[in-house]
Amino acid sequence: MSVDSSSLGPSLRLSSRMAGVRSSAIRDLLTFTARPEVISLAGGLPAVELVPRGRIAQAARRALGDPHSVQYGETSGWAPLRETVASRESEAVGRRVAPAEVVVTHGSQQALSLLAQVLLDPGDTVVVEEPGYTGALQVFRAAQAAVVPVALDANGMDTAVLEQALREGLRPKVVHTVSNFHNPRGVVLSAQRREHLASLADRYGFWIIEDDPYGELWFDAPPPAPVATHSDRVLRLSSGSKTVAPALRIGWLHGDRRVCEAVELLKQGADLCGSSLTQRIATELLDDRTWLDSHLAAIRGAYSARSHALVGALESVFGERISHTPVFGGMFCWIEFADGCDATSLLARAIEHDVAYVPGGAFGVADAHSHAARLCFATYGGEVLVEGVNRLRQAYDAHIRTPWSVTGH
């Protein structure tokens, strides 16, 4: 869905930037998947039973003991939380990150939106991955940027293709990458390509936005060192939504102090400040390393088992009718129908069979990815995932026998 301001009449005309903004197909699906009988493999929803509600309640009680926890706070975030994030990110990137180089945001999506406003003028070029993260595509289109895709393969963004385009005159202001357990493809940017991408940023002078909400959700081995390890032209984003609780709405960015100061300035006009209460809760949880390590280990174990259940069911039920990317972490599995089945038209049949997914076209920039789909394995246990795949196969069989159009029978 996109917004057409011309249809609203002369009394209400929206800004020109709204012309390129489309609603997220994932959010649109929520209308259909809200029914309890639907097994939704669509949304990237963490498992609610793994959210540490008891531990959050303890931290909330302690936070509420201080009256300042219900007061306005600093725009850049509660100072102890910025110190905690700076310490964690220093360990991740292998160099000291100062608290002044950290801004706490209302989820990492707000960080991405504010960075786009700080860095981009209309018409500036942004390089994204193909297929790309829908939230990033929305942000960059709203900023009226020229979005240029670079294809992914099993090792992440093909930086050799990017380098060739740069040699031929491409001059991006920003390159965006979901480096770990990519959304939607699930791939990991290789160590060699991380170094290569960083060297290209240094040589050609663009900013890298390293979007990393999934990096701690590895199964067998952690991913390579962040891109930010290799260049100071990297602005790194992360979040507590996938590891602690989405409802806390705690995200952050760190990078060049001048960029952080500009982000803070715009944030004053966006929301003035975040939640003092949830930032204090998050600080206690992120500071409790013993508890956090145990909690992350439990999430990794559960998600690993669920990914095996989903992939095993796909291979058993569909066989060679689909291919899928290997799953090493994160929350998603990307599949492609070998027979050319259109995933968008199949979705209507799938919803009739009480199962849902996100068609690949939702993530496309130059490629429609019409035969692909993204499945989330994090939300449900193994038995439900197997049933979801069985329903998908039933929908697929019905669709092949009597294909639907996108709009109906």
UniProtKB/TrEMBL annotation:
<keyword id="KW-0032">Aminotransferase</keyword>
<comment type="similarity">
    <text>Belongs to the class-I pyridoxal-phosphate-dependent aminotransferase family.</text>
</comment>
<feature type="domain" description="Aminotransferase class I/classII large">
    <location>
        <begin position="54"/>
        <end position="387"/>
    </location>
</feature>
<dbReference type="GO" id="GO:1901605">
    <property type="term" value="P:alpha-amino acid metabolic process"/>
</dbReference>
<dbReference type="InterPro" id="IPR004839">
    <property type="entry name" value="Aminotransferase_I/II_large"/>
</dbReference>
<dbReference type="GO" id="GO:0008483">
    <property type="term" value="F:transaminase activity"/>
</dbReference>
<dbReference type="Pfam" id="PF00155">
    <property type="entry name" value="Aminotran_1_2"/>
</dbReference>
<dbReference type="GO" id="GO:0030170">
    <property type="term" value="F:pyridoxal phosphate binding"/>
</dbReference>
<dbReference type="InterPro" id="IPR015422">
    <property type="entry name" value="PyrdxlP-dep_Trfase_small"/>
</dbReference>
<protein>
    <submittedName>
        <fullName>PLP-dependent aminotransferase family protein</fullName>
    </submittedName>
</protein>
<comment type="subunit">
    <text>Homodimer.</text>
</comment>
<dbReference type="InterPro" id="IPR015424">
    <property type="entry name" value="PyrdxlP-dep_Trfase"/>
</dbReference>
<keyword id="KW-0808">Transferase</keyword>
<keyword id="KW-0663">Pyridoxal phosphate</keyword>
<dbReference type="InterPro" id="IPR050859">
    <property type="entry name" value="Class-I_PLP-dep_aminotransf"/>
</dbReference>
<dbReference type="InterPro" id="IPR015421">
    <property type="entry name" value="PyrdxlP-dep_Trfase_major"/>
</dbReference>
